Amino acid sequence: ELPFAESYKIKMVEPIYKSTREQRKEWIKQANYNLFNLRSEQVFIDLLTDSGTGAMSQNQWAAIMTGDESYAGSSSYYHLKDAIKNILGFDYFLPTHQGRAAENVLFSVLVKEDDVVPGNSHFDTTKGHIEYRKASAVDCTIDEAFDTESLHPFKGNLDLNKLEAVYSTHPAEQIPMVIVTLTCNTSGGQPVSMQNLRDVHTLSKKYGIKVVFDSARFAENAWFIQQREDEYRNSTIKEIVAEMFSYADAMTMSSKKDGIVNIGGFIAMKDEELLKQASVFNIMFEGFNTYGGMAGRDMNALAVGLDEVTTGYYLENRIQQVAYLGNKLIEWGIPVQKPIGGHAVFVDAKKFLGHVPKEEYIAQTLAIELYLEAGVRGVEVGTLLADRDPKTRENRYPKLEMLRLAIPRRTYTNNHMDVVAVALKNIFDRREEIDHGYRIKKEAPIMRHFSVELEHA
Ligand code: F0G
Questions:
Q1: Pick from 292, 309, 326: which residue ends a domain?
Q2: Which of 12, 76, 95, 375 is the most buried (most CB within 10 A)?
Q3: Rounded to the nearest whole angstrom, what is the distance from the C-alpha of residue 2 to the centroid of ligand 1?
Q4: Which residues carry this modification: N6-(pyridoxal phosphate)lysine (predicted)?
Protein backbone atom coordinates (compact mmCIF):
# COMPACT_ATOMS: atom_id res chain seq x y z
CA GLU A 1 0.00 0.00 0.00
CA LEU A 2 1.22 3.52 -0.81
CA PRO A 3 1.70 6.03 2.02
CA PHE A 4 -0.89 8.73 2.63
CA ALA A 5 -0.46 12.10 0.89
CA GLU A 6 -2.60 15.21 0.74
CA SER A 7 -4.95 15.56 -2.23
CA TYR A 8 -3.88 19.15 -2.90
CA LYS A 9 -0.71 21.01 -3.87
CA ILE A 10 0.47 24.44 -2.74
CA LYS A 11 0.16 27.47 -5.03
CA MET A 12 1.03 30.33 -2.69
CA VAL A 13 3.34 30.32 0.33
CA GLU A 14 3.73 32.56 3.37
CA PRO A 15 7.11 32.68 5.14
CA ILE A 16 7.23 31.98 8.86
CA TYR A 17 10.07 32.90 11.19
CA LYS A 18 12.28 30.79 13.39
CA SER A 19 13.65 32.39 16.54
CA THR A 20 16.10 31.52 19.31
CA ARG A 21 15.19 30.40 22.80
CA GLU A 22 16.82 33.61 24.13
CA GLN A 23 14.52 35.75 21.96
CA ARG A 24 11.45 33.78 22.98
CA LYS A 25 12.34 34.08 26.67
CA GLU A 26 12.35 37.85 26.33
CA TRP A 27 9.21 38.02 24.16
CA ILE A 28 7.06 35.85 26.42
CA LYS A 29 8.11 37.93 29.42
CA GLN A 30 7.13 41.11 27.58
CA ALA A 31 3.81 39.39 26.75
CA ASN A 32 3.21 38.89 30.50
CA TYR A 33 3.29 35.14 29.92
CA ASN A 34 0.07 35.35 27.95
CA LEU A 35 0.42 33.74 24.49
CA PHE A 36 -2.39 35.92 23.11
CA ASN A 37 -0.09 38.91 23.57
CA LEU A 38 2.65 37.61 21.27
CA ARG A 39 3.04 39.05 17.79
CA SER A 40 2.58 36.45 15.07
CA GLU A 41 6.20 36.99 13.89
CA GLN A 42 7.31 35.78 17.31
CA VAL A 43 5.62 32.42 16.64
CA PHE A 44 7.03 29.69 14.40
CA ILE A 45 4.12 27.23 14.32
CA ASP A 46 0.82 28.74 15.40
CA LEU A 47 -1.59 26.23 16.88
CA LEU A 48 -3.44 28.82 18.99
CA THR A 49 -6.61 28.13 17.07
CA ASP A 50 -8.11 26.53 13.97
CA SER A 51 -10.48 29.51 13.77
CA GLY A 52 -10.09 31.73 10.72
CA THR A 53 -6.54 30.47 10.23
CA GLY A 54 -7.14 27.99 7.40
CA ALA A 55 -6.08 28.27 3.75
CA MET A 56 -8.82 28.91 1.19
CA SER A 57 -8.90 26.93 -2.06
CA GLN A 58 -8.49 28.35 -5.56
CA ASN A 59 -12.25 28.06 -6.02
CA GLN A 60 -12.85 30.11 -2.88
CA TRP A 61 -10.42 32.79 -4.07
CA ALA A 62 -12.18 32.80 -7.42
CA ALA A 63 -15.50 33.32 -5.61
CA ILE A 64 -13.93 36.28 -3.75
CA MET A 65 -13.43 38.00 -7.10
CA THR A 66 -17.09 37.68 -8.05
CA GLY A 67 -18.45 38.83 -4.67
CA ASP A 68 -21.35 41.28 -4.90
CA GLU A 69 -20.98 44.19 -2.47
CA SER A 70 -24.54 45.54 -2.76
CA TYR A 71 -25.88 46.62 0.62
CA ALA A 72 -29.20 44.82 0.09
CA GLY A 73 -30.06 41.69 -1.86
CA SER A 74 -26.58 40.84 -3.16
CA SER A 75 -26.09 37.72 -5.28
CA SER A 76 -23.47 36.57 -2.73
CA TYR A 77 -26.18 36.50 -0.05
CA TYR A 78 -28.31 34.29 -2.29
CA HIS A 79 -25.36 31.97 -3.05
CA LEU A 80 -24.90 31.51 0.66
CA LYS A 81 -28.64 31.09 1.25
CA ASP A 82 -28.72 28.31 -1.35
CA ALA A 83 -25.70 26.55 0.19
CA ILE A 84 -27.29 26.66 3.65
CA LYS A 85 -30.59 25.32 2.31
CA ASN A 86 -29.05 22.61 0.11
CA ILE A 87 -26.30 21.38 2.44
CA LEU A 88 -27.67 22.06 5.94
CA GLY A 89 -31.40 22.03 5.21
CA PHE A 90 -32.45 25.34 6.81
CA ASP A 91 -34.96 27.62 5.05
CA TYR A 92 -33.97 30.78 6.90
CA PHE A 93 -30.66 32.31 7.90
CA LEU A 94 -29.00 35.53 9.07
CA PRO A 95 -25.34 36.29 8.35
CA THR A 96 -23.22 37.57 11.28
CA HIS A 97 -19.59 38.64 11.52
CA GLN A 98 -18.58 35.49 13.43
CA GLY A 99 -19.87 32.72 15.70
CA ARG A 100 -20.18 34.64 18.94
CA ALA A 101 -22.16 37.31 17.12
CA ALA A 102 -24.61 34.61 16.06
CA GLU A 103 -24.87 33.64 19.74
CA ASN A 104 -25.40 37.25 20.76
CA VAL A 105 -28.24 37.74 18.28
CA LEU A 106 -29.98 34.42 18.90
CA PHE A 107 -29.66 34.58 22.69
CA SER A 108 -30.99 38.16 22.67
CA VAL A 109 -34.25 36.58 21.53
CA LEU A 110 -34.19 33.38 23.56
CA VAL A 111 -32.31 33.79 26.87
CA LYS A 112 -33.52 35.75 29.91
CA GLU A 113 -32.48 36.09 33.56
CA ASP A 114 -32.58 32.85 35.63
CA ASP A 115 -32.92 30.65 32.55
CA VAL A 116 -31.12 27.34 32.40
CA VAL A 117 -29.36 26.21 29.21
CA PRO A 118 -28.19 22.59 29.20
CA GLY A 119 -25.58 21.35 26.71
CA ASN A 120 -22.37 19.38 26.19
CA SER A 121 -19.53 21.51 27.61
CA HIS A 122 -20.57 24.86 26.13
CA PHE A 123 -17.79 26.80 24.41
CA ASP A 124 -16.52 29.79 26.42
CA THR A 125 -18.22 32.52 24.33
CA THR A 126 -21.46 30.53 24.42
CA LYS A 127 -21.26 30.26 28.18
CA GLY A 128 -20.23 33.93 28.35
CA HIS A 129 -23.33 35.00 26.42
CA ILE A 130 -25.53 32.88 28.69
CA GLU A 131 -23.98 34.12 31.95
CA TYR A 132 -23.92 37.73 30.74
CA ARG A 133 -27.74 37.45 30.60
CA LYS A 134 -27.75 36.14 34.21
CA ALA A 135 -28.78 32.69 33.08
CA SER A 136 -26.79 29.51 33.69
CA ALA A 137 -25.22 26.84 31.49
CA VAL A 138 -25.56 23.25 32.76
CA ASP A 139 -23.04 20.73 31.48
CA CYS A 140 -24.65 17.39 30.57
CA THR A 141 -21.66 15.78 28.83
CA ILE A 142 -21.19 12.04 29.44
CA ASP A 143 -18.73 11.20 32.24
CA GLU A 144 -16.40 9.32 29.87
CA ALA A 145 -15.42 12.67 28.31
CA PHE A 146 -13.52 13.56 31.48
CA ASP A 147 -11.44 10.38 31.48
CA THR A 148 -8.75 11.08 28.87
CA GLU A 149 -7.85 7.36 28.67
CA SER A 150 -11.40 6.20 27.88
CA LEU A 151 -11.71 5.21 24.22
CA HIS A 152 -15.44 6.00 23.97
CA PRO A 153 -16.01 6.81 20.26
CA PHE A 154 -18.39 9.71 20.92
CA LYS A 155 -17.11 11.64 23.92
CA GLY A 156 -19.12 14.69 22.82
CA ASN A 157 -22.40 12.90 23.63
CA LEU A 158 -24.91 14.30 26.09
CA ASP A 159 -25.89 12.13 29.03
CA LEU A 160 -29.65 11.75 28.59
CA ASN A 161 -30.19 11.20 32.31
CA LYS A 162 -28.40 14.45 33.15
CA LEU A 163 -30.42 16.22 30.45
CA GLU A 164 -33.73 14.82 31.63
CA ALA A 165 -32.83 15.82 35.21
CA VAL A 166 -32.64 19.43 33.99
CA TYR A 167 -35.88 19.12 31.99
CA SER A 168 -37.84 17.53 34.80
CA THR A 169 -36.78 19.97 37.53
CA HIS A 170 -37.38 23.26 35.67
CA PRO A 171 -40.47 24.58 33.92
CA ALA A 172 -40.12 24.61 30.10
CA GLU A 173 -40.39 28.43 30.10
CA GLN A 174 -37.09 28.54 32.00
CA ILE A 175 -35.26 26.37 29.43
CA PRO A 176 -35.02 28.32 26.17
CA MET A 177 -33.02 25.58 24.40
CA VAL A 178 -30.50 22.80 24.68
CA ILE A 179 -27.21 23.56 22.89
CA VAL A 180 -25.40 20.65 21.27
CA THR A 181 -21.86 21.54 20.19
CA LEU A 182 -20.61 19.60 17.12
CA THR A 183 -17.86 18.52 17.60
CA CYS A 184 -17.49 19.33 21.27
CA ASN A 185 -14.51 21.70 21.35
CA THR A 186 -14.15 21.93 25.13
CA SER A 187 -13.96 18.16 25.67
CA GLY A 188 -11.30 17.75 22.97
CA GLY A 189 -12.92 18.08 19.54
CA GLN A 190 -14.94 14.99 20.38
CA PRO A 191 -17.91 14.01 18.20
CA VAL A 192 -21.57 13.50 19.04
CA SER A 193 -23.15 10.37 17.55
CA MET A 194 -26.19 10.45 15.29
CA GLN A 195 -27.97 8.23 17.81
CA ASN A 196 -27.33 10.81 20.51
CA LEU A 197 -28.55 13.67 18.30
CA ARG A 198 -31.71 11.69 17.59
CA ASP A 199 -32.24 10.89 21.29
CA VAL A 200 -31.62 14.47 22.42
CA HIS A 201 -34.13 15.64 19.83
CA THR A 202 -36.80 13.12 20.93
CA LEU A 203 -36.35 13.92 24.62
CA SER A 204 -36.38 17.66 24.00
CA LYS A 205 -39.55 17.49 21.91
CA LYS A 206 -41.22 15.50 24.70
CA TYR A 207 -40.54 18.44 27.06
CA GLY A 208 -41.16 21.12 24.42
CA ILE A 209 -37.55 22.39 24.38
CA LYS A 210 -35.81 23.87 21.32
CA VAL A 211 -32.71 22.10 20.00
CA VAL A 212 -29.89 24.39 18.82
CA PHE A 213 -26.63 23.09 17.35
CA ASP A 214 -23.42 25.06 17.80
CA SER A 215 -22.12 23.87 14.45
CA ALA A 216 -18.61 25.31 14.12
CA ARG A 217 -17.11 21.87 13.32
CA PHE A 218 -20.19 20.06 11.97
CA ALA A 219 -18.35 18.45 9.02
CA GLU A 220 -15.66 16.96 11.27
CA ASN A 221 -18.50 15.57 13.39
CA ALA A 222 -20.07 13.99 10.28
CA TRP A 223 -16.72 12.36 9.42
CA PHE A 224 -16.61 10.61 12.79
CA ILE A 225 -20.21 9.43 12.39
CA GLN A 226 -19.25 7.93 9.01
CA GLN A 227 -16.17 6.23 10.48
CA ARG A 228 -17.57 5.07 13.81
CA GLU A 229 -21.33 4.51 13.54
CA ASP A 230 -21.99 1.30 11.58
CA GLU A 231 -25.24 2.44 10.06
CA TYR A 232 -23.48 5.34 8.30
CA ARG A 233 -20.42 3.59 6.89
CA ASN A 234 -21.81 3.80 3.36
CA SER A 235 -23.46 7.21 3.63
CA THR A 236 -21.91 10.30 2.07
CA ILE A 237 -20.86 13.21 4.28
CA LYS A 238 -23.61 15.33 2.73
CA GLU A 239 -26.23 12.70 3.61
CA ILE A 240 -24.95 12.51 7.17
CA VAL A 241 -24.89 16.30 7.53
CA ALA A 242 -28.47 16.54 6.26
CA GLU A 243 -29.67 14.00 8.82
CA MET A 244 -27.71 15.64 11.66
CA PHE A 245 -29.42 18.98 11.07
CA SER A 246 -32.84 17.35 10.71
CA TYR A 247 -32.65 17.04 14.53
CA ALA A 248 -32.14 20.79 15.12
CA ASP A 249 -34.59 23.69 15.25
CA ALA A 250 -31.81 26.23 14.77
CA MET A 251 -28.04 26.45 14.57
CA THR A 252 -25.30 28.96 15.23
CA MET A 253 -22.18 28.84 13.12
CA SER A 254 -18.65 30.12 13.35
CA SER A 255 -17.76 29.92 9.65
CA LYS A 256 -14.10 30.38 10.60
CA LYS A 257 -13.89 26.65 11.27
CA ASP A 258 -15.82 24.34 8.94
CA GLY A 259 -16.74 27.17 6.59
CA ILE A 260 -12.99 27.32 5.81
CA VAL A 261 -13.06 31.12 5.61
CA ASN A 262 -11.10 33.69 7.59
CA ILE A 263 -14.11 35.53 9.02
CA GLY A 264 -17.88 35.06 9.20
CA GLY A 265 -20.75 33.33 10.90
CA PHE A 266 -24.49 32.82 10.71
CA ILE A 267 -27.66 31.69 12.44
CA ALA A 268 -29.99 29.34 10.59
CA MET A 269 -33.47 28.27 11.62
CA LYS A 270 -36.53 26.42 10.44
CA ASP A 271 -39.09 28.74 12.04
CA GLU A 272 -39.95 31.98 10.25
CA GLU A 273 -41.17 33.60 13.46
CA LEU A 274 -37.74 33.09 15.08
CA LEU A 275 -36.14 34.60 11.98
CA LYS A 276 -38.32 37.70 12.34
CA GLN A 277 -37.48 38.14 16.02
CA ALA A 278 -33.75 37.58 15.49
CA SER A 279 -33.70 39.96 12.49
CA VAL A 280 -34.36 42.92 14.76
CA PHE A 281 -31.24 42.20 16.80
CA ASN A 282 -29.22 41.28 13.73
CA ILE A 283 -29.90 44.67 12.16
CA MET A 284 -28.96 46.44 15.41
CA PHE A 285 -25.79 44.47 16.19
CA GLU A 286 -24.52 43.09 12.88
CA GLY A 287 -25.97 44.79 9.82
CA PHE A 288 -28.83 44.54 7.37
CA ASN A 289 -30.12 40.98 6.98
CA THR A 290 -28.51 40.31 3.59
CA TYR A 291 -24.96 40.97 4.79
CA GLY A 292 -24.95 40.95 8.63
CA GLY A 293 -21.37 42.16 9.04
CA MET A 294 -19.91 40.12 6.19
CA ALA A 295 -18.53 41.42 2.91
CA GLY A 296 -20.30 40.02 -0.14
CA ARG A 297 -17.04 38.40 -1.27
CA ASP A 298 -16.72 36.61 2.06
CA MET A 299 -20.27 35.24 1.82
CA ASN A 300 -19.38 33.95 -1.64
CA ALA A 301 -16.23 32.20 -0.37
CA LEU A 302 -18.24 30.72 2.50
CA ALA A 303 -20.83 29.28 0.13
CA VAL A 304 -17.99 27.46 -1.68
CA GLY A 305 -16.36 26.47 1.63
CA LEU A 306 -19.54 24.76 2.90
CA ASP A 307 -19.58 22.66 -0.23
CA GLU A 308 -15.85 21.78 -0.12
CA VAL A 309 -15.89 20.84 3.55
CA THR A 310 -18.57 18.22 2.83
CA THR A 311 -17.14 16.90 -0.45
CA GLY A 312 -14.41 14.55 -1.62
CA TYR A 313 -11.14 14.04 0.20
CA TYR A 314 -11.15 17.21 2.27
CA LEU A 315 -12.09 15.59 5.59
CA GLU A 316 -9.80 12.61 5.14
CA ASN A 317 -6.84 14.99 4.68
CA ARG A 318 -7.88 17.08 7.63
CA ILE A 319 -8.51 14.39 10.20
CA GLN A 320 -5.44 12.44 9.06
CA GLN A 321 -3.15 15.34 9.94
CA VAL A 322 -4.59 15.84 13.40
CA ALA A 323 -4.32 12.08 14.03
CA TYR A 324 -0.73 12.07 12.72
CA LEU A 325 0.35 14.49 15.43
CA GLY A 326 -1.79 12.82 18.10
CA ASN A 327 -0.58 9.30 17.36
CA LYS A 328 3.08 10.36 17.55
CA LEU A 329 2.45 11.72 21.04
CA ILE A 330 0.57 8.58 22.08
CA GLU A 331 3.44 6.44 20.79
CA TRP A 332 5.84 8.33 23.06
CA GLY A 333 3.61 7.95 26.10
CA ILE A 334 2.61 11.60 26.26
CA PRO A 335 -0.84 11.88 27.91
CA VAL A 336 -3.49 13.22 25.49
CA GLN A 337 -7.28 13.10 25.21
CA LYS A 338 -8.09 9.82 23.44
CA PRO A 339 -9.31 9.06 20.87
CA ILE A 340 -7.79 12.03 18.98
CA GLY A 341 -10.49 14.57 18.10
CA GLY A 342 -11.27 16.43 14.91
CA HIS A 343 -9.53 19.78 15.04
CA ALA A 344 -6.89 19.55 17.74
CA VAL A 345 -4.76 17.41 19.97
CA PHE A 346 -5.47 18.05 23.66
CA VAL A 347 -2.55 17.31 25.98
CA ASP A 348 -3.57 16.28 29.50
CA ALA A 349 -1.49 18.81 31.44
CA LYS A 350 -2.31 17.45 34.90
CA LYS A 351 -0.84 14.09 33.94
CA PHE A 352 2.06 15.72 32.04
CA LEU A 353 3.16 18.19 34.73
CA GLY A 354 2.38 16.38 37.97
CA HIS A 355 4.45 18.73 40.16
CA VAL A 356 2.81 22.05 39.33
CA PRO A 357 0.01 22.93 41.80
CA LYS A 358 -3.40 23.64 40.24
CA GLU A 359 -3.33 27.15 41.76
CA GLU A 360 -0.38 27.88 39.45
CA TYR A 361 -2.19 27.16 36.15
CA ILE A 362 -0.79 23.82 35.01
CA ALA A 363 -1.91 23.91 31.36
CA GLN A 364 -0.73 27.51 30.93
CA THR A 365 2.65 26.49 32.34
CA LEU A 366 2.92 23.75 29.72
CA ALA A 367 1.84 26.15 26.95
CA ILE A 368 4.65 28.55 27.94
CA GLU A 369 7.20 25.71 28.05
CA LEU A 370 6.24 24.61 24.53
CA TYR A 371 6.60 28.14 23.22
CA LEU A 372 10.04 28.47 24.82
CA GLU A 373 11.09 25.08 23.47
CA ALA A 374 10.22 25.56 19.78
CA GLY A 375 8.20 28.73 19.15
CA VAL A 376 5.01 26.65 18.99
CA ARG A 377 1.91 28.46 20.25
CA GLY A 378 -0.87 26.33 21.73
CA VAL A 379 -3.63 27.47 24.04
CA GLU A 380 -4.66 26.76 27.61
CA VAL A 381 -8.04 25.07 28.07
CA GLY A 382 -7.96 24.94 31.83
CA THR A 383 -8.39 27.10 34.90
CA LEU A 384 -7.65 30.43 33.20
CA LEU A 385 -10.30 29.71 30.57
CA ALA A 386 -12.79 28.33 33.12
CA ASP A 387 -12.69 31.74 34.80
CA ARG A 388 -14.23 32.60 38.18
CA ASP A 389 -17.67 31.58 39.36
CA PRO A 390 -19.90 34.58 38.53
CA LYS A 391 -21.47 34.49 42.02
CA THR A 392 -18.67 33.49 44.42
CA ARG A 393 -15.78 34.95 42.28
CA GLU A 394 -13.71 31.89 43.25
CA ASN A 395 -11.51 30.21 40.62
CA ARG A 396 -13.37 27.34 38.91
CA TYR A 397 -11.04 24.36 38.62
CA PRO A 398 -12.24 22.28 35.66
CA LYS A 399 -12.05 18.49 35.68
CA LEU A 400 -9.44 18.64 32.93
CA GLU A 401 -6.44 20.93 32.48
CA MET A 402 -5.59 20.80 28.79
CA LEU A 403 -3.07 22.28 26.41
CA ARG A 404 -4.88 22.48 23.08
CA LEU A 405 -2.86 22.22 19.87
CA ALA A 406 -5.39 23.29 17.25
CA ILE A 407 -4.44 22.56 13.66
CA PRO A 408 -5.40 25.19 11.07
CA ARG A 409 -7.06 23.73 7.95
CA ARG A 410 -4.79 23.06 4.92
CA THR A 411 -2.07 25.32 6.38
CA TYR A 412 0.85 23.31 7.79
CA THR A 413 2.60 20.16 6.56
CA ASN A 414 3.34 17.03 8.55
CA ASN A 415 6.94 18.28 8.90
CA HIS A 416 5.51 21.03 11.11
CA MET A 417 3.64 18.37 13.08
CA ASP A 418 6.96 16.55 13.60
CA VAL A 419 8.51 19.69 15.11
CA VAL A 420 5.58 20.07 17.51
CA ALA A 421 5.76 16.42 18.53
CA VAL A 422 9.53 16.43 19.18
CA ALA A 423 9.32 19.70 21.12
CA LEU A 424 6.70 18.19 23.42
CA LYS A 425 8.75 15.04 23.81
CA ASN A 426 11.79 17.10 24.88
CA ILE A 427 9.69 18.77 27.58
CA PHE A 428 8.18 15.42 28.59
CA ASP A 429 11.68 13.99 29.09
CA ARG A 430 12.58 16.79 31.55
CA ARG A 431 9.13 17.19 33.12
CA GLU A 432 10.39 16.36 36.63
CA GLU A 433 12.37 19.62 36.64
CA ILE A 434 9.25 21.76 36.10
CA ASP A 435 7.75 22.21 39.55
CA HIS A 436 6.20 25.64 39.62
CA GLY A 437 3.93 27.70 37.44
CA TYR A 438 2.53 31.22 37.36
CA ARG A 439 0.31 33.57 39.33
CA ILE A 440 -2.07 36.29 38.15
CA LYS A 441 -0.98 39.94 38.21
CA LYS A 442 -4.06 41.36 36.45
CA GLU A 443 -7.30 39.95 35.02
CA ALA A 444 -10.54 41.11 33.38
CA PRO A 445 -13.94 40.43 35.05
CA ILE A 446 -15.10 38.09 32.22
CA MET A 447 -13.24 36.06 29.51
CA ARG A 448 -10.02 36.75 31.39
CA HIS A 449 -7.79 34.33 29.48
CA PHE A 450 -7.49 36.71 26.51
CA SER A 451 -5.88 39.52 28.51
CA VAL A 452 -4.64 38.04 31.79
CA GLU A 453 -1.16 39.12 32.92
CA LEU A 454 0.96 36.56 34.72
CA GLU A 455 4.28 36.32 36.58
CA HIS A 456 6.42 33.41 37.79
CA ALA A 457 5.00 31.86 40.95
N1 F0G B 1 -18.59 27.73 19.29
C2 F0G B 1 -17.50 26.94 19.28
C3 F0G B 1 -17.64 25.48 19.51
C4 F0G B 1 -16.25 27.52 19.07
O5 F0G B 1 -15.17 26.73 19.09
C6 F0G B 1 -16.15 28.91 18.85
C7 F0G B 1 -14.86 29.55 18.64
C8 F0G B 1 -17.32 29.68 18.86
C9 F0G B 1 -18.52 29.04 19.08
C10 F0G B 1 -17.28 31.17 18.65
O11 F0G B 1 -17.04 31.47 17.32
O12 F0G B 1 -14.80 32.63 17.33
O13 F0G B 1 -16.35 32.78 15.37
O14 F0G B 1 -16.90 33.96 17.47
N15 F0G B 1 -13.77 28.97 18.86
C16 F0G B 1 -12.45 29.46 18.58
C17 F0G B 1 -11.45 28.48 19.11
C18 F0G B 1 -12.18 30.87 18.99
O19 F0G B 1 -10.26 28.80 19.14
O20 F0G B 1 -11.84 27.37 19.49
P21 F0G B 1 -16.22 32.78 16.87
A1: 309
A2: 95
A3: 36
A4: 257
Q: Which atom of ligand 1 is nearest to the CA of 185?
A: 3
How far is 306 from 371, CA to CA, in rounded Å?
A: 33
- With a CB cutoff of 8 Å and minimum separation 6, the contacts of 14 are none
Is the per-residue pLDDT at 447 higher than 90?
Answer: no
**Is any ligand 1 atom within 6 A of the Cβ of residue 185?**
yes
Regarding whether 341 and 228 lie in a shared domain, the answer is: no
Whether residue 381 sits in one domain with residue 294:
no
Mean pLDDT of 315-338: 97
- Catalytic residue, from 4, 8, 17, 71: name it: 71
Do 134 and 114 form a contact (C-beta atoms < 8 A)?
A: yes
Q: How confident is the model at residue 167 (pLDDT cuts 50, 70, 90)?
A: very high
Of 249, 280, 309, the one marking the end of a domain is 309
Domain that holds residue 101: 58-309
Residue 376 lies in a domain: yes
Pair (246, 322) in one structural domain? no
What is the mean predicted confidence (pLDDT) over 357-370?
A: 97
Residue among 46, 115, 139, 214 flagged as catalytic: 214
Q: Report pLDDT digits (tens) over 93-143.
A: 999 999 999 999 999 999 999 999 999 999 989 999 999 999 999 999 999
User: Does 262 share its domain with 276?
Assistant: yes
What residues have CB less than 8 Å from 228, skipping those under 6 apart? 153, 154, 191, 193
d(CA 123, CA 403): 16
Q: Is 170 a catalytic residue?
A: no
Q: Is 264 in the pocket of ligand 1 (CB under 6 A)?
A: no
Give dist(CA 130, CA 203) in Å, integer: 22
Residues 283 and 330 in one domain: no
169 Cα to the center of ligand 1, angstroms: 30
Residue 243 has a pLDDT of 98
